[in-house]
Design a protein that fits this description.
- By secondary structure, the protein is an alpha/beta fold.
- The protein has one domain: Aldolase class I (TIM Barrel), CATH 3.20.20.70.
- Helix content is 47%, strand content 13%.
- The strands form three sheets. An eight-stranded parallel barrel has the order 4-5-6-7-8-9-10-11, surrounded by six helices. Strands 1-12 form a two-stranded antiparallel sheet.
- α12 links the parallel β10 and β11.
- α1 crosses α9, α1 crosses α13 and α12 crosses α13.
- The mean pLDDT is 94.
């Protein structure tokens, strides 16, 4: 197996079975409380979880977020999870399509349209890789999988720890500007586990970006994943740096509010989202879509597709309950409910210059 294939296999194994969560930093979604409405005046049958994102109506504002691609096992994971997303009316995100650039035959591991013909599908390419490609080649990568939008991921912390990682992160804004102005589908700027600040958000907005995935701190630490890999290959320097940066990043809740303050058209909350309550809190803070990654992978490995469906049944029941208990008939109503912001999240917002509302 090639180096990139080995890396993708390592990523899947570590995310499914390894201890790669943030050590002390949380998403800070638990620092948000929604006010209870004891007289909601609603019938459960009238509650509506649907949401329109990037022109497509989803049954619920849920994304099975980017995880993998490039190996036979990755192909199985992508196809099974994409089929779940299709059946449930969710969005689905592919993992980094970099493998397609290195080994053309791996393109099949990213193709899911035959099992998910109508799903809102996000392609995925690293900013560093996109920088060295023509717009036409980037477009071809997206078209090869039938993507409705293309995530361009930003992951400097992860790359700095990765034994074979990139070290040159220059000319990113120019690359984004070229893609936004030339691609026929929306471009989503996406972090990879370290979150987005309002300063970064303003730079993205100036580059023409209108859609973001915060991928905040508090869930899977991709620095942690690469630290484990560095340890496996005997890279002592990489392991030491990874241990120092394991909890580096901006929590998901703070990232969502920072992006709302900038005014993006679409805000996707990924990074440590695990429950229906997490979804409700993220939506109330300004997100339009909430993404799940590692918990879904674990559910798939533990119980197959039926295990994933059971997991999301619980998520939707909890989200419906939160709609009722906040007097919200729709997801749009939920995004307007009063909320209480706790002290730690307030400190992040103050440091980032983000208003509480």
């Amino acid at each position: 197996m090639s180096d990139i294939g080995t890396r993708k296999t390592d990523h899947l194994t570590l995310c499914a079975h390894g201890d790669v969560g943030f050590r002390s930093l949380t998403t800070l979604l638990d620092d948000v409380r929604l006010l209870h409405d004891a007289l909601p005046e609603l019938d459960d049958a009238d509650l509506d979880l649907s949401a329109t994102v990037l022109g497509k109506t989803l049954r619920a504002p849920i994304l099975i977020a980017a995880m993998t691609g490039g190996t036979d096992e990755a192909a199985r994971v992508n196809r099974e999870l994409a089929a779940v997303a299709e059946a449930r009316g969710y969005a689905f995100g592919l993992g980094s399509q970099r493998a397609m650039l290195v080994r053309e035959h791996t393109a099949a591991t990213f193709r899911v349209r035959d099992v998910a013909p109508s799903v809102l599908l996000f392609g995925n390419l690293g900013l560093v890789q996109a920088r060295s490609m023509s717009v036409a080649d980037v477009r071809a990568v997206a078209e090869a999988v039938g993507a409705d939008a293309l995530c361009i991921h930003l992951n400097p912390a992860m790359e700095l720890v990765q034994p074979e990682g990139d070290r040159d992160f220059s000319r990113g804004i120019d690359t984004l500007q070229a893609l936004v102005s030339s691609l026929p589908i929306p471009v989503i700027a996406k972090e990879t586990g370290s979150g987005l600040s309002s300063r970064t958000g303003r730079k993205l907005a100036r580059a023409g970006i209108r859609h973001v995935d915060v991928s905040g701190a508090g869930g899977t630490s991709w620095v942690g994943v690469e630290t484990k890999r560095a340890e496996q290959v005997g890279d002592d320097a990489g392991k030491a740096l990874g241990d120092a940066l394991w909890d580096w990043g901006i929590p998901t809740a703070a990232s969502v509010m920072a992006m709302k303050s900038v005014g993006f058209d679409t805000i996707i909350a990924t990074g440590g989202v695990q429950t229906g309550t997490d979804v409700a809190r993220a939506l109330a803070l300004g997100a339009h879509l909430a993404g799940f990654a590692r918990p879904v992978l674990k559910a798939l490995y533990d119980g197959g597709a039926s295990g994933v469906h059971r997991y999301f049944d619980r998520i939707e029941r909890e989200l419906r309950a939160l709609l009722m208990l906040t007097g919200s008939r729709t997801i749009s109503d939920l995004r307007e409910v009063p909320r209480v912001i706790g002290p730690t999240l307030r400190l992040y917002l103050e440091a980032d210059g983000v208003p509480l509302r």
